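Chain X:
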Amino acid sequence: MSHGIAAREVGLAKESVERNVKFFWSRQADVNADGTVMPPQPPNDRDDTLPPSLWQLAVKWGSSLTVLALIVSLVVHISGGVIANFITMRGDLGSRGGGSGGAPVEMAIGAAGPLSDLSDVGAGPSLPAVPEDVGGGSVELSMSSAGSGAPGVSDGGEAGGSELGGLGGSLSGGGDISIGGGLGGGGGGGGGASFFGVEASGNRFAFVVDVSSSMEADNRIGRLKQELRATVDNMAETAEFLIVTFSDEARVLGPKVEWRQASPAMRRRVMSETDAMAMGPSTVPMPAFEIVLGLRPKPDAIYFMTDGQFEETVVERVAILSRTAGGVPVHCICFGDDAGGQLLQRIASMTKGTYTFIPSK
């Protein structure tokens, strides 16, 4: 009997376990169509959305590129239209301004009104006015010397000089033969000189002239004085000069060895000084060249006039001094007698000057 009771209890316990198991799976799992309980499936932690295909990517990027191309095309067409319009407008303005028959285009920035009403106030520093008759003469420029060794005031009380040449030469180049004529017996205008009709450009001129006894023939000395006065009288007032005579020795016209400004007062002095020029027996030009080529600032050109023969060594020595001074041209004038003509031609050639023969009248 005890065996039966035990079997019953085991059956009851088994039923209880099965019932509990069914209840558990009914809450934790899905139930099939036939009523059976399915065990729960493990959770799916993957995204249900699949990655896009290659075609979908191509369509997406193709759409983006199409939109970008449309934007770029639009920008290019707008820019091209603006540039073309600007070029067309400039060409039209240029044709109106430069061509004949086109109406002038007036443009003004600011308040409305004609251009003639605009004032010049605040336009900046004023510029020097240019004379309308510029073609009638030369424009003269001058600069004061500073530390160049040139005299400040000449013995005549006139200002000692505009030292354009102290800056390395004259404006127009030292000693180059100027183009043009019609200056007569003197006259360099502004920036030049003419001596016996031989013209030279520059601002500073030295005259080495022969006063030996042979110059008394045919009144050569009288013509020399006349030419010296005419040359200085026709120089610009800013020009400078120095006259050195030679015979057996060299003599400077004036109390000092210095550049003299061609002022009206100095021109009157030259007239009296040339009247008092002393004559000598021989023709020795080298000391006079040493004076004028030793000046600082250097001359822009030298006029060398003689009627006689001199030592051949002078040619080479003058050429060396000219090169040492920076290349000063020597314009040689053979006056009345061509005895020294060959030597003068060599000096002119070696110093890049000129040679001229002037016959006696």
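Chain Y:
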Amino acid sequence: MNRKVFVSGCYDMLHSGHVAFFEEAATYGDLYVGIGSDKTINALKGRKTINTDSERLYMVKALKAVKDAWINSGSGIIDFAEEVKRLKPDVFFVNSDGHSLAKEQFCRENNIQYVVSERIPHRGLPARSTTALRKECLIPYRIDLAGGWLDQPFVNKIYPGAVVTICIEPDYEFNDRSGMATSSRKKAVELWHTDIPEGDSETLARTLFCYENPPGTQYVSGSQDALGIVMPGLNRFYYNNGYWPEKIESVTDRDVLTWIEERLRLVPLYPRRDGYDVLADTDVCEEGVKALSDAADACWDAILRRDAAGWGRALTASFEAQVRMFPNMVSDAILRELDSYKSQALGWKISGAGGGGYLVFVSEKVVRNGIRIRIKN
């Protein structure tokens, strides 16, 4: 008997990347595909699919690499649980951006081999993703590399400092509430529809910031979100007792950005728990804010020197300063997962407080299950 291989996903707007993924998975055995229902995709991604689940099922079943396919009956990230327990596959196959700790744990509990593969396009064809085919997703995301929280006046009024960010191409559909400025990006899509318009970047960022935070807004989103989305490349925003930075420095040199891309990896985390409050038990003090500010400066300087070890130390120092002041940013589960990766990395932080986001690593070697990003220039 051939081994059974299982994959699960949305598979909307079927493209060559999906076909290449199925063909690679089928090298491990007979391939069975679980497809997320319209209801599940809407709940997870906050949007409707382009093609209905019946259309998606029809197209996936027509592919020669696929032995059989169905619509998963469950909900959430593990919407395939009942089907997998009946199928009893030997292998669960995922792309690096489809990896999740919940899936890996599910496979351990059910004695299934868990295989993570990077995107491998068919020879001669471009890399494809559903996200890249959606017009509105030309609008980028952003990652803060150090100094996060310093764009909030209740922090930077205690001690001034910078937030260091990079502007990320939308090659993946990054999780909502993942510390990637997803809420600001949604507002950018409402405002500009398909892409960042031409014009002065800081003026456009001010427009987006004001659109997201109209008068009377109870919790004002930090301006690093709007700035980090609109301004390409690597950026340093310096704050001193205010919502808007006093000084902005940018680097768009492709050699520097490529150096960052080659050493930065993201690993998905568990979803955020219900009732989560990042501001509970907060202890914002001058010593902690200064440590955060110093780490951001060290991060910026190390990247410009192309000092990977120094960058890694600064990344970790920024993370530790944040957690000291905002202990609810992490949980025991996040810390355990982080510990399992430390030997592979020079430094680390998280994107997305409390889960639902990503572990962020600086490393000179391959990071297990790591996603590689591209910086918008």
